[in-house]
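Example 5.3 — Succinate-semialdehyde dehydrogenase
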Amino acid sequence: MGSGVPPLDDKSLLKSKAYVNGQWVDAKSGKTFEVHDPATHKLIGTMPEFDSADTEAAISAAAAALPSFRKTTGRERSRMLRKWYQLMMDNQEDLAKLITWENGKPMADARGEVAYAAGFFEWFSEEAPRLYGDTIPASVAGNRVFTVKEPVGVCGLITPWNFPAAMITRKIGPALAAGCTVVAKSPGETPFTAAALAELAERAGIPKGVVNIITALENTPQVGETICESDTVRKVSFTGSTRVGKLLMKQSSSTMKKLSFELGGNAPFIVFDDADLESAVAGAIACKFRSSGQTCVCANRIYVQKGIYEEFARAFTEKVKGFKVGYGYDEGITHGPLIHEAAIKKVESHVKDAESHGGKVLIGGQKLPDLGSNFFQPTVIRDMTSDMALAKEETFGPVAGLFPFDTEADVVKMANASEVGLAGYFFSKDLQRVYRVAEALEVGMIGVNTGLISDAGSPFGGVKHSGLGREGSKYGIDEYINIKTVTLGGIGPLQGS
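Solution (predicted structure tokens):
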């Protein structure tokens, strides 16, 4: 591994190929793409540039593996997932090193991601044996009605770079628990973590063809289109931008697939006058600056009631002063680089736009060229208004904009003035207010008096343009099953009666 990058304890986890039908393969064309460390821009390695034909081969492998895999018992699939979970935890340090290398997040965050990611395999290993059907009272005498849950079939999974391990396990876990086989497209920016997970899948005894991990960078649109337009793929799950989600939905329409999309967010974070200030500041820090603001459930618009606005702005800025930006492997680093140049440009444009409309930068606001071109100072801006770009667009970077507000009704109106609705947060000690505001916010997930809401047992997903379907939780497996109804007729009374 590169200079400054700690070596892997198990070097066989570093793979430079895709994983199809139980084999490590190159693209048929021989083409590859380069993956660079976002902190240093040094080459990490290359991966196969898959195209449509390569993708079709992976889909065929998943289709060939389906008939036997769907017949395995839930308990058998449970044991495979449990073993995969254990292997992830046994290799937590190496997986964290890979995440930090290709994504940039500090090692402490990367270790946390591995545990979170493995948790989906653990959770769905426990759901696999519990795919209960129902016995339904029939309205016709002599009929009996029952349902069975069956795997939907081959699943196409497309994942983003911000959680290189967790976004892929959150999809593969329920798919395998349900008895589906998968073709998972790893992110072009961060494919090495997914390849390491494929190596561990093999060690966990998951049969060949059940899990296929494919790679592409330039050909990503072509690969996505091939997955969406394939009649063999019966389900597509995508995490990424709303714009791409809408395109994939359109491409999937001709084959009438089952779809789940976890798309963009623009999370409001509301602090009411009666909130515990210390808790609210800590919650806002954790929620806004986790992974340098590069998560879809990060606080994007921080609304603070006027009675505590000044005090909150002071305490919040003071906490940000304690951050240490740098290379993810270095001791004491709290925040790493952004993923690429486009991310830096967006962050910079949001800061400049806020300043030009009267926003006042309390801390940060600048790039950190001494560290590298992808580093940006954690930033706090006060006196934000709804006409600023940050109010309308997801920043996906380390910029916290503080908006003052007067009343509950005002802030709910501002919070809901967005076409997306993924997560929302608020801090208050008033129980009646908690119910009122939680019911009024147009989002799929709400954190009340907490800034961290992700949990394998909790349903994850949004409303409006933030997508459809839920991941994780007991509901997460529903996205990967079909319900079959069986009506048995002619039973009648006992013979001879």
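Remark. The radius of gyration is 24 Å.
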